[in-house]
Write a structure and sequence with these properties.
Shape: elongated
Number of helices: 3
Order of helices and strands: HHEEH
Radius of gyration: 19 Å
Largest sheet: 2 strands, antiparallel
Structural class: mainly alpha
Strand content: under 5%
Distance between the termini: 49 Å
Number of strands: 2
Length: about 120
């Protein structure tokens, strides 16, 4: 599977997880897109540095070809998938903890013993 196909697969998988598994609907929230705009700015900066200085080199046969700040466009897809999955997972775990707390279950973590 090419880098491009993996990038598209990652985005589709994360959208399924967000919308159908976790049901957080993260990608439908304006606040997500504001946060993502900030994140993608720094992603492009770092991708530009790493690929512009040839720290990371891509096989031209494995990518679509268009580059943004020296990095293949597919890197934006992987970044989107990573950020979205992280935020959706965080929201899902937080929702579960809040639901348990409302139902009267103790959700505090226990301190580990160092003895």
């Amino acid at each position: 599977m090419t880098y491009s196909a993996l990038a598209v697969t990652a985005v589709l998988a994360v959208l399924v997880v967000d919308l159908m598994v976790y049901r957080t609907r993260m990608v439908t929230r304006p606040v997500f897109w504001v946060a993502y705009a900030i994140i993608v700015t720094f992603q492009l900066l770092m991708n530009g540095v790493l690929t512009g200085l040839d720290v990371v080199v891509y096989d031209e046969r494995a990518i679509w070809g268009p580059r943004i700040a020296y990095a293949p466009a597919e890197d934006l897809l992987f970044g989107f998938a990573m950020v979205t999955l992280t935020l959706a997972s965080w929201a899902a775990v937080n929702r579960r903890a809040n639901t348990a707390r409302r139902r009267g279950f103790d959700t505090d973590t226990r301190r580990s013993s160092t003895r």
